[in-house]
Amino acid sequence: MAAIINTCSTCQLALVRPLTLPCGYTCCTNCHRKYTACVSCDRTHTMTINPNVTLQAMQAVDVESKWDAILECAICCNRFNLPTTTPCGHTFCRNCLVRSLDHQHACPFCRDPLDVCPPPNQLLSAVIQQMFGEEASADGLEPSDDRIPLMVGSLAFPGVSCVIHVFEPRYRLMLRRVMQSGRRRFGLCLLKRKTERGYYTYGTMLELMHVQTLPDGRSIVEAVGSHRFHVVSAHLVDGYHLAEIERVDDLDREQQQMLEQQQILRASASRARSQQQSVESRPPMITARPRPSVPLSGPRPAMIHQRRSWAHQAHPQTAQVNRAPWLQMHVRGLSVARPKKQEQSPASLPLLTPSPTVRHREESGTDELIDDLVLFIRKLIRYKQSNPTSHWLAPLGDPPPLDRDVRDRVKLIWWISNLMPLSEEEKIPLLTFRTLRERVLLVTLWKDKFEDQWSLHLNTNNNNIPSASSSPDLCCIS
Ligand SMILES: [Zn+2]
Ligand SMILES: [Zn+2]
Ligand SMILES: [Zn+2]
Ligand SMILES: [Zn+2]
């Protein structure tokens, strides 16, 4: 063993003032000075490299039984695991060094600047391998349990791809563990931005398709949502959450069809009842108008109430998210398109909104509602084609198949949900519903509102939809 650390493998002479180069190869100072290109990696290592402190200490003791204390990482106080030597000559476990670099780009011992973690030190790895056998190379980073690591940030939907920039130290660590475990998945939950601290307990599992780690430790992750989940319990590990989750799936097809029929019947019956009541209570002199007395802007009370109670029965803990009035659209373009108060005089309404404002969506079948959404998507696509510079429709991308006989209804609605120009917090209820119909109804409600305001603008401004140039900071379409 002593021969390994006392002989230079380049010149076969004494390993005097051993240098570990940034490629992980160790040679004597003389050899490094003699050859311009590295004999191991053929590159030229131009940076200043200091002698390997650990190897020098081992050479000074030269008794194997006393190396135990020298082969100890200053960060974790365990024997080196994948020993990695910095150009300043200090050695750490590779994982310890990488974690330290998440927080500051410097050697954890002497604070010399260090941007990139070098590969493991080949000589020290061989020494540990020979002295202690296999156990040294075992990497016990991933806590071995079935809990799912959570990233708390934004919103994702099943079947919809997304790109995530991982820069926070805790998530860099989480991502490395996820990749090392071979599972290549983590849960994404939305941060509660407006009101409280913490995060929404409904989230989406992300399957990592491609991870590009930049030299400074940040990563660009391309992922696609696989399924929804609900967090049952979670606790912090190294700054991020490990969660026990339960999968959230839709009810089976038969149950969904039964609920749909029930809802359609209930909605028609209740409309018939209220029409009857309004006919009876109306003074005889006023001409009957078919338009119900629901205001143009503002949620439809019956619908909102219905939806809230559904969600509340299924998931009482998240029912409060439904109370956010959906009108809090924060696309600037909509406020541009929104008419001024005085324009909303009753006389002008029929002209401005050719389609009836109240559409009795609960009475329509789910497929009809989806057809309606598809029409809306086609309109957007046409608009995008004639206004290629408007970047606010960039997320439209290539839509999934839209025709009734080939489309995947579930996938299509997630895709449309992702496109809707609303804040992520308003979209959270979508993750909690267990029927496609509930999601379709909510998205339709958003779409109707969007279209009302859009058509108002169309009719008042000679078919000019607000373009990106008139509202340059239209950037919240997620
Ligand atoms: Zn040498
Ligand atoms: Zn080299
Ligand atoms: Zn360590
Ligand atoms: Zn150092």
TrEMBL record:
The keyword Zinc-finger applies. Keywords: Metal-binding, Signal, Zinc, Zinc-finger. The keyword Zinc-finger applies. SUPFAM superfamilies: PUA domain-like, RING/U-box. Residues 1-18 form the signal peptide. GO terms for molecular function: ubiquitin protein ligase activity; zinc ion binding. Residues 145-451 form the Lon N-terminal domain. Residues 73-111 form the RING-type domain. Residues 267-278, 345-357 have a biased composition (Low complexity). CDD domains: RING-HC_LONFs_rpt2. Gene3D superfamilies: LON domain-like, Zinc/RING finger domain, C3HC4 (zinc finger). It comes from the Eukaryota. Residues 267-298, 337-364 are annotated as: Disordered. This is Uncharacterized protein. It comes from Rhizopus oryzae.
